C-alpha cells in the first residue's frame, strides 16, 4: 500500500522576508473574536521558509497561492454591485503578469510548489485575463488560481471575472476563493455569494477557503445546493473555540454535512504551519485515520491530478 499523499491547498510565500512580514503584520484576523492560544508559524514566509515547513511536516505538495491587491483601490459606488468594464489600473497589467510569472517560476524550481496564479478585474479586462491565464496554464506550468474577493473588492459573479472562469474551465484548473465576512459588511466573500457562480458554472473546480470563516453556519446550505464545491479547513481550525468560530465538534459536523471527500487541508502559511494544522485535523473527534488521509491530501491529489 502506498504512503498517503500530503497536500496543503492553501499556502502563501514571498520573494523576500520584508514582504511577508508586512502582510502578516498588517492583515487583521479579527472575525472570530479573541483567542489567546492561537499558534502562529512565527516566520516571515519566504519560499525557503515555506519549503522548510513542508519538509518538516512531511508534505509532498502545496498550492502556492498568489494575490495581486491594490491598497489604493476605492470601494465601488454604493449603488453598483459590479465594477465598470474598463479597468482603472490597466497600467499595472505588466506588474500582474510579472507576479504570476514569479509564482510559476517558483513551481518550476521547486516541485513541491504548485503555482496558483491570480487576477484582478481592476487591472485586466475579462478577455485579457482569459488570454493571460490560458497562456500561463498552457506554457508556464500554472495549476490553479487564487481569488480574494474582499482584497480586490469584487463579488464572485462580477462580469470582469468571466474570462478567469473560462480559462479555468478549459484547463480544469481549480480556483481557491477566500470566504468569510469583511469588516465593513459589504459581503464580497460570504458563502451566499457563491451560490450563483456555482449554479452558472457547474464545471468550474472551486475550493472555498476557511470553511466560510466566521460565517461557517451558512456553509451547509451552500454545500447542499452546490455539490461540486470543495472546502478547505485553513485558519478556521486554528481558531476553534473563539467566540465566533466553530468548536471542534462543529467542524466535524460540517465535514459530515458536506462530505469528507469534499474537504482539503490548507494551512494559510505563513500565518499558520502545515504541520500544526495537520495535527489539529488529526485530533478532531471522531474522524478515522482513513478520513484524515482524505483531508490531508488524497482529496486534493484527486482534484489536482497528482497521481
From TrEMBL:
Residues 8-306 form the Amidohydrolase-related domain. GO terms for biological process: secondary metabolic process. Transmembrane segments: none annotated. SUPFAM superfamilies: Metallo-dependent hydrolases. The keyword Lyase applies. One of its GO terms (cellular component) is cytoplasm. Keywords: Lyase. The keyword Lyase applies. GO terms for molecular function: carboxy-lyase activity; hydrolase activity. This is Amidohydrolase-related domain-containing protein. It comes from Microbacterium endophyticum.
Amino acid at each position: 500500500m502506498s504512503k498517503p499523499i500530503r497536500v496543503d491547498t492553501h499556502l502563501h510565500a514571498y520573494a523576500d522576508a520584508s514582504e511577508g512580514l508586512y502582510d502578516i503584520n498588517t492583515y487583521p484576523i479579527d472575525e472570530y473574536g479573541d483567542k489567546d492560544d492561537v499558534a502562529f508559524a512565527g516566520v516571515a514566509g519566504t519560499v525557503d521558509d515555506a519549503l522548510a515547513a513542508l519538509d518538516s511536516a512531511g508534505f509532498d505538495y502545496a498550492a502556492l497561492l498568489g494575490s495581486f491587491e491594490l491598497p489604493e483601490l476605492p470601494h465601488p459606488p454604493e449603488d453598483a454591485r459590479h465594477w465598470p468594464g474598463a479597468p482603472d489600473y490597466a497600467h499595472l497589467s505588466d506588474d500582474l503578469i510579472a507576479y504570476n510569472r514569479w509564482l510559476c517560476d517558483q513551481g518550476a524550481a521547486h516541485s513541491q510548489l504548485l503555482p496558483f496564479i491570480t487576477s484582478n478585474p481592476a487591472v485586466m479586462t475579462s478577455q485579457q485575463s482569459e488570454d493571460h491565464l490560458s497562456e500561463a496554464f498552457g506554457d508556464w506550468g500554472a495549476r490553479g488560481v487564487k481569488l480574494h474577493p474582499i482584497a480586490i473588492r469584487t463579488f464572485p459573479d462580477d462580469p470582469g471575472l468571466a474570462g478567469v472562469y473560462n480559462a479555468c474551465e478549459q484547463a480544469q484548473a481549480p480556483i481557491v476563493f477566500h470566504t468569510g465576512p469583511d469588516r465593513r459588511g459589504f459581503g464580497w466573500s460570504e458563502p451566499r455569494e457563491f451560490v450563483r457562480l456555482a449554479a452558472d458554472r457547474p464545471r468550474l473546480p472551486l475550493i472555498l477557503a476557511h470553511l466560510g470563516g466566521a460565517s461557517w453556519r451558512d456553509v451547509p446550505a451552500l454545500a447542499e445546493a452546490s455539490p461540486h464545491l470543495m472546502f478547505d479547513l485553513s485558519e478556521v481550525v486554528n481558531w476553534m473555540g473563539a467566540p465566533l468560530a466553530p468548536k471542534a465538534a462543529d467542524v466535524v459536523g460540517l465535514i459530515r454535512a458536506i462530505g469528507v471527500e469534499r474537504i482539503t487541508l490548507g494551512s494559510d502559511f505563513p500565518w499558520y504551519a502545515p504541520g500544526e494544522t495537520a495535527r489539529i485535523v488529526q485530533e478532531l473527534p471522531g474522524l478515522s485515520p482513513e478520513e484524515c488521509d482524505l483531508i490531508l491530501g488524497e482529496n486534493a491529489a484527486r482534484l489536482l491530478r497528482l497521481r
